[in-house]
Amino acid sequence: MQRLLLTLWMLLSVWVSSMYAIDRIALRDSILKAVNGAQIPQRKISISQFGAKGDSATNCYRAFVKAMRYAQKNGPVRIVIPEGVWLVGGPIHLVSGVTLEISKNAKLMFTGQPKNYLPAVSTSWEGTLLWNYSPFIYGYGLHDVAIVGQGVIDGGTAAETFSEWSKCQGKDQNSSREWNHRGEPLEQRLMGAGHFLRPQLIQLYRCERVTLSSVYINRSPFWCIHMLQCKNVRLRGLRCKARLTNNDGIDIESSQGVLIEDIRFDNGDDNVAIKSGRDNDGWTMGGPSRDILIRLCRFKGLHGVVIGSEMSGGVENVIIENCTYAGYVKRGIFVKTNPITHIFLPKVFVLQKNNVTL
Questions:
Q1: Which residues pair with 175 in a beta bridge?
Q2: Closest to 39 (Cα-Cα) out of 138, 141, 143, 142
Q3: Which residues, listed in sequence order, are joined to residue 351 by a DSSP beta bridge?
Q4: How confident is the model over 274-310, as pLDDT tens digits?
Q5: Backbone phi, psi, residue 344, to 5°
Q6: At 241, phi and psi to the nearest 5?
Q7: What's the rounded Cα separation, in Å, for the pair 163 and 179?
Q8: What is the mean pLDDT of residues 17-27?
Q9: Model pTM?
Q10: What is the rounded distance in angstroms from the CA atom of residue 193 to the CA atom of residue 17?
Q11: What pLDDT, on the 0 to 100 scale, is given for residue 1?
Q12: SS3 77
């Protein structure tokens, strides 16, 4: 009888495992088919044509403003940043149809005081929607936006200045959560001047068809790459080395259809964090993060992949496969939440090198 029960148990385990494998493969293939990212324009124009100089001395902020105005009127277009060090003393606000191509041996370095990153923009901070300092590279409500090339995006001295604010952000952090809990109207949730919530390095908000490929990320004031309520996102071949305070590598929040592939992480916090809004905002305005494929990545940092903690809108259909780690990683996969958060987590697959599905 014991042998019979053991045999039945083994057969059931094999059957369940095969069903999971079939389900995972079907989900993976559907994500790969659906996620194609931005349409990259063939027409190119150099940022130098707008007065920028890659001499590590000239502030190129106005040149990027002119370039984006040009792209808005004459796009789609690829704006090329040639070899050199290009200082930018304020935020770059992208437009639909634009690709930033950061060439090999080119470095985009942000400088300036926090006031340079005003006026405030509509954004999110730890899962609460509000108005705050502009992320260094920002886009809202766009389509077909991309950042490509083999160059560097460096938060620079601006990132280091903002990073110090982590020591005095507590009051504003608590205020943002109070606004969230009582459903404060968004137009009244004003941070920015006189407050201490740090912006992200790159944030795209409510954008569709997004590609980030091959660039090197270094130093960030807060999270490095934040995809907020986006659809159809391809993040491939990036390198991330950012060790300032709360330097998550990639944060996916309330976004659908995301491929994260062949990323080399070396950052001071979570490598990938999947979120969907905090508390009331997540329930009413966030929506779930779903259809996310993470594969062929190399993790190094606090945690590999984190689901949470702000995930009130839910997370579903996540695949993590054939990833490795190097150096310190406290946890490979970490799910975290809190007692008042209502969550759902259907279909989360982890495929290890030995083809074991968890």
A1: none
A2: 143
A3: 321, 357
A4: 999 999 999 998 899 999 999 999 999 999 999 988 9
A5: -135, 140
A6: -130, 100
A7: 24
A8: 74
A9: 0.93
A10: 55
A11: 58
A12: strand
